[in-house]
Amino acid sequence: MNVATPAIRLEPGDAAFPRRVTALFSGTLWAIGNTQLLDYRAIGICGSRGASASGLERSYEFGREVAGMKAVVVSGYARGVDRQAHKGALEGGGATIAVLPEGILHFKVPKELQPLVDLETNFLAVSMFEPDDRWQTWRAMQRNKLIVGLSMGLFVVEARGKGGTIDAAEESRRQRKPVYVVDFLNDLPGREGNRELMRQFAMPIRTVRELRRALEAVLTQQHETPARQLSLTIGEGSNGCE
Hints:
By secondary structure, this protein is of the alpha/beta class. It has a single domain (28-227), classed as Rossmann fold. It has helices at 53-68, 81-91, 137-150, 164-174, 192-200, 208-219; strands spanning 8-10, 29-33, 42-46, 72-75, 96-99, 123-127, 154-156, 179-182, 203-205, 232-235, 238-241. The chain has a nine-stranded mixed β-sheet, with helices on both faces. It is globular, with a radius of gyration of 16 Å. 45% of the residues are buried.
């Protein structure tokens, strides 16, 4: 589904420009959807595009848990972990921000999310690139700065030994934000990065209880720029945000 909604241009100094990223990014942002979501407490979730079945389940579960704590999920909108985290947040009655690795003119809502996305309330797509810029590897990496900048902490579900997920975790450490990573019982191929991140600096998560404790710890941090708590109005056919 292509989106006919016009893009919004956000410049530093504009009321809608996210204050928490002004020290990281001084250029133009382009957005489609509910820009008020930029003001709310948010959690970054990232992981492999080719995640395992259990990794995808964890991603969805993480998205729902964030929604249940009245916070916004921020992720990279790629297939795999990102897409499942967005879906979990939306099906959990919450809201989500998709940080695009390309220009806003290439934004479209995938079939699996179409019944869930309401651009006026629960969804925002945002890009740091020129509107017609196409996907390139360096752009997928560069957008990690914005994903982390909009988030209070980063939760890694499944990471390969190198690539975008590892880069996002390193970016979170550079921005001095907490990083949590799933500690799977089985070290299957495609999870090499999880073990390495835990060895270096990331905090492990094994159970849902540990996930909830970690989310509470991150969301109750004190920041120079306070973020509002998402207020959900849940009714029939509505995932509205106040």
